[in-house]
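#lab-general

N.A. 3:47 PM
ok so I finally got the sequence cleaned up, no stray characters, all 225 residues accounted for. can someone with queue access submit it? mine expired

B.Y. 3:52 PM
send it over

N.A. 3:53 PM
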Amino acid sequence: MTLLELPLDARPREKLLTRGPAALSDTELLALLLRTGMAGKGVFALAQELVDGFGGVAGLLHAGADELKRIKGLGGPAKRAELLAVLELARRAMAQQLRAREVFSSPDAVKHYLQLHLARQVHELFAVMFLDAQNRLIQMEVMFRGTLTQTSVYPREVVVRALKLDAAAVVLAHNHPSGTVLPSRADEALTQTLKSALALVDVRVLDHVIVAPGEALSMAQRGLL
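B.Y. 4:20 PM
back already:
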């Protein structure tokens, strides 16, 4: 069934405008964004397939351009571009919130923010959230790519960047493409190395967050900092 074949009060757009976005299910919201399905598959079926295939809306928002391109029905650039635009808006909205208030007033927001940036990456990335004296976000930067070891991440570069941004504290973060968020011994060793290096310039390491699709682990909350 297409959107136009639905009764007027059941169409997602009309339902949203009359009853508000909260009245729509995840599938209805996604169908509204997609607008059309494909031959043999209506827009609602396509929307439900996406929600199920990515493990819910959160998983879909973490999807990258290549993952979306492989989905039958999203082969054209227009729909992929719209979904990726929604993802980017979510990132920017979270970044704006983290710049406006103390980061750890909402630890879950930090985890979601990092998941949106890192969780679906196929290669391991190391990022740093640079914070001001009130623990508000100044900037987040991906600084290194590849398997993380004490020799592949250069503490001097992190220190130099922290000084340039006048950061008072940092949150370290990286992803595990394997899907597990358990820290390795190399993760723990790297954290201590960076903590010692940054302490020399009075920059505190508040946390090291490890993310994977659908999961995030705070080393500070685990007592590993």
